[in-house]
Fold this sequence. Notes:
The radius of gyration is 13 Å and the shape is globular. The two termini are 24 Å apart. Helices cover 38% and strands 9% of the residues. The mean pLDDT is 89. The longest helix is centred in the N-terminal third of the chain and has 13 residues, at 12-24. Strands 1-3-2 form a 3-stranded antiparallel beta sheet. By secondary structure, it is mainly alpha-helical. The protein contains 6 helices and 3 strands, in the order αααβαααββ.
Amino acid sequence: VPFTPATYVVDAMQNCLLGQLEYYLSPQNMAQDLYLRQRMDNEGWIPISLLASFKRVRQLHTDAAIVREVLSRSAVVEVSGDCVRMGGRQWVLFVLPNAPRSMITVGDHG
């Protein structure tokens, strides 16, 4: 079940997909998911294509554009271009010291 309440009509697949994606980007998961944390840049951004490649996500949908669209509806994550990060600056707690420099600029959010 997603953290974001649905304020619009969504099908069951998109609701399940949102729940799975929000889980991957939750503090509970990030606390134990070194693989995902190693793929964050120094501003907490993760390529949406990476999340779209995960088996549980692919079982729900194989189109990265749909994955991005579903993520953009979340109230608990931020989407910028083809990247996503935890919302509310929670990402700061999980960025590794050797994370690559972010290529996302503030004006890219949306």
